Amino acid sequence: MRNYLIVDDNREFAENVAEILEDGPDRGWVAGSGAEALALVGERRFDAVLTDMRMPIMGGAELVHRLRRIDAGLPAIAITAYTGDDQIAAARREGLLAVLPKPVVVPHLLDLLRKARRHGLVALVEDDLALADNLGEVLRARGFSVITATSVLETERLGAVRPFSALVDLRVRGGADGEALTKLAAKYPGLPMIVITAHGELELPIACAALILKPFETARVLDVLEELHRAALEATGAGAGEGRS
C-alpha cells in the first residue's frame, strides 16, 4: 500500500481524490492548508504529495520547498487553474514530477502518483530543447522528477534540492566544454553523472558514472538511471521498497 498526501484548500476536491485512491490498494491523506500538510509530513512517510498551487497563506511552491526540508525524497505533483502562474516557475525549480491543469484528468493523475519515485530527482543539463523535452517526458513517464538547465549559467542556478543523478551534455551554451559538469560537481559533491555527447573525442574534466554518445537509444539512458536509483535508495536505507511500485 502506498500513502499519498493531497493538499488543497478546496477540501471537497482533496477528499474526492482520496476516496478515488482508496478504491484501490492505496490511501490518501487530506490537508486543507500548507501548515496542516507540514504537520502530517513530520509525522509519517508519504510516497508522493499532490498540491494545489494557489492556497491562502502558503502557496504550492513554498509548500513543496518546505516539505523537501522535512523529507528530501518526497516526489511532488502540482495542480493549478492558472497556467501562467508565476508560482509554477518557482515550483519547477524544486523538481516537480508534473504540473497538471485543472480540471484534473483523474486516470492520468493516478498513473503519475503510482509511478512516482522517492529520491527520484534527476538534473538534466541539455541545450538542445527538443532533446531535453523528449528526455524529460520519458523520465517523468517512468516516475522520475526532473530539474532542467540549458546553459552553464542555469546549471549554477539549479534549485537547492539535491538530485540522485544528472544527465549532462558535455557541450552546452555559456561555457567551455565540460564546464557544466564541473559546476554540478561543485554544487552537489559526489553526484553520479551520466555524460551525453556527440563529441566522444573530448576529454572529460571529471570522472562520470557513464558516457553515452549521441545519437543514443533512450533505453540505454534509462537502464543506467535505474541502476543509479537503486544505489541511491540503498544509500538512504530505503531499499527496493521505495522504488517504483
Commentary on this structure:
With about 240 residues, the protein is an alpha/beta fold. Strand 6 (about 120-125), helix 6 (about 130-140) and strand 7 (about 145-150) form a beta-alpha-beta unit. It has a five-stranded parallel sheet with strand order 2-1-3-4-5, sandwiched between helices. Strands 7-6-8-9-10 form a five-stranded parallel sheet, sandwiched between helices. The protein has helices at about 10-20, 35-45, 60-70, 85-90, 105-115, 130-140, 150-155, 180-185, 220-235; strands at about 5, 25-30, 50, 75-80, 100, 120-125, 145-150, 165-170, 195, 210-215. It is about 40% helix and about 20% strand. It has two domains: about 5-115, Response regulator (Rossmann fold), CATH 3.40.50.2300; about 120-240, Response regulator (Rossmann fold, 3-Layer(aba) Sandwich), CATH 3.40.50.2300. The protein contains nine helices and ten strands.
Summarize the structure in short.
The protein is of the alpha/beta class and 245 residues long. The chain has nine helices and ten strands. Helix 2 (34-43) runs parallel beside helix 3 and helix 3 (60-70) runs parallel beside helix 4 (86-92).
Q: For this structure, what is the CATH class of the largest domain? A: Alpha Beta
Q: For the record, what is the CATH homologous superfamily label of the largest domain?
A: Response regulator
| Rg value | 18 Å
Derived from helix and strand composition plus strand pairing, the structural class reads alpha/beta
Low-confidence stretches: none
Q: Can you write the helix and strand succession as a string?
A: EHEHEHEHEHEHEHEHEEH
Shape: elongated
In CATH terms, what is the architecture of the largest domain? 3-Layer(aba) Sandwich
Return the average pLDDT rounded to an integer.
Answer: 91
